[in-house]
Design a protein that fits this description.
Mg(2+) binds at residue 176. It comes from Ilyomonas limi. InterPro entries: RraA/RraA-like, RraA/RraA-like_sf. One of its GO terms (molecular function) is metal ion binding. 40% of the residues lie in helices and 19% in strands. By secondary structure, it is an alpha/beta fold. The protein has 2 domains: 2-233, 3-Layer(bba) Sandwich (Glucose Oxidase, domain 1), CATH 3.50.30.40; 239-303, no CATH class. A hairpin with a 2-residue loop joins strand 12 (222-226) and strand 13 (229-233). Helix 4 crosses helix 9 (238-261). The relative contact order is 0.17.
Length: 307
């Protein structure tokens, strides 16, 4: 499956440049990359996942998100070992991808000429910022380059936050780290910092499939970034992942309380629940004032739950 995806993505990129299309993939090409998403889409073709689930995703642990995706067969969606600008803050959002490569003059000229023909202005590392919308997260693969690989400084950082109100994930580096720290609300997961400026690099595509360490990332994925690492969630799984994780959180809270009370043994809680425990759980839910989801969502979810 991964090999097919890579071949398909490579075909899109090759035909994309050969036919003098846009620097970014077209909406139809992005739809072709994300056929499992059946909901509304943004104008650029990316899945328009619901804000209410994005907001609730912040409360989901990395382990829960990772475990859910692994059970779905998606085993390459996590990357750890980051330098985080604000490690105590979580970041979620819809992914805008950018791919960078070592500079090759002929290909770089082709890309920059196309960009200018499309009306793009400024250096190519500013072009992904121009397409950002509120709630997007700018995710770039700059192949781990630190020295002379700094994609942004504080000027571009301010532009990113003004458009997205989130931050960045760079498999590479930034400069002006102190200036970036001064942007209230801005956050970043990066592989390093260096005072140098970007050299001998080129932008090769916007909203194309990219690799971020151990993870394969598509435009429109949903990102859950915390101090322990990052999980990239295919858009079609967001709602169920959030509801599943919230249910597990409730189930665990109930189990922990009943274990402290001595009402059940660990063996009873850690195995398939009896009808008596299920009934007790449902009654316990009725006493909780702050559920992570609405009661309607919970009742609908539990209809298909096998416990």
């Amino acid at each position: 499956m991964i090999r097919k995806l890579i071949c398909f993505a490579s075909f899109i990129c090759i035909t994309h440049f050969a036919s003098a299309q846009q620097v970014t993939l077209t909406p139809d090409q992005i739809k072709a990359l994300t056929p499992d998403w059946k909901g509304e889409r943004l104008a650029d073709g990316r899945p328009k996942t619901e804000d209410r689930f994005l907001n609730r995703l912040k409360n989901i642990s990395l382990e829960e998100a990772w475990g859910y995706l692994r059970n779905k067969g998606y085993q390459n969606q996590f990357e750890g070992d980051w330098m985080v600008i604000r490690p105590d803050s979580a970041m979620v959002g819809r992914v805008v991808t950018a791919q960078y490569m070592p500079l090759r003059p002929d290909l770089n000229k082709l890309i920059t000429d196309k960009g200018k023909a499309e009306g793009r202005i400024g250096a190519t590392n500013s072009w992904p910022i121009d397409v950002l919308q509120n709630g997007d997260v700018y995710v770039a693969d700059s192949y781990g380059k630190i020295v002379d690989g700094t994609l942004i400084g504080d000027n571009l950082g301010n532009a990113i936050y003004a458009k997205s109100h989130t931050g960045v994930i760079f498999y590479g580096s930034v400069r002006d780290i102190e200036g970036l720290e001064e942007i209230q609300g801005f956050n970043g997961w990066i592989k390093g910092y260096d005072p140098s400026y970007i050299q001998q690099m080129m932008l090769s595509g916007i909203n194309v499939p990219i690799r971020i360490g151990r993870a394969t990332v598509l435009p429109g994925d949903v990102v859950l970034a915390k101090k322990g690492g990052i999980v990239f969630i295919p858009a079609q799984f967001l709602e169920d992942l959030v509801l599943n994780s919230e249910f597990v959180e409730l189930r665990d809270a109930f189990g922990h309380q009943r274990l402290r009370e001595g009402k059940y043994t660990p063996g009873q809680i850690d195995t398939q629940w009896t009808d008596e425990i299920k009934k007790d759980f449902l009654q316990w839910i009725g006493t909780q004032k702050d559920l992570p989801m609405t009661r309607e969502e919970l009742d609908k979810y539990m209809k298909d739950r096998t416990w």
